[in-house]
Fold:
Amino acid sequence: MNTQKISIRKLAFISGTFIFMGMVVYFLLMKLVGLDTTPELRLLNLVLLLIGVWCTIKYFNYKSGRHIQYFEGLSLGFTTVMISTVMFAVFIGIYLYFIDPVLLDEIKLQSPVMGKYLTPASAMISMIVEGIVSGLIIAFVMMQYFKDDSLHSPFAKRPDNLRPEKE
Structure:
């Protein structure tokens, strides 16, 4: 069994970068097939984030040889999502400003209420805010799956000093 010391920051950065690359490939694929103006398809980014955070926490458990602690896992999941989301938001901002400004005009036409206020910068900010909310939810949901309930279970084997006292 591996018992290596794993840096949460380093693992979050590496995993976040992989998730970011997956999101870019997905975006470019949607652009290629002409579905880049369909806003509902961005929900699949959430699936990429879920899979990425799940794999990251599983990798941490495997490499460290132990179950991740609850707040440690929340931090790892949230940091991973934030890194990938910020990188993707910057990519989209650059893409909309320099590479394909016509895409921004097409998106503006689809949203008559907010369309006139949409800029590459506001698109980036909204993506980051959406990523913060998604990151908190994803990290919380993943840690419900990965948390170790053995310390709270009345049937778990524990050392004598951790057993609840009988009244």
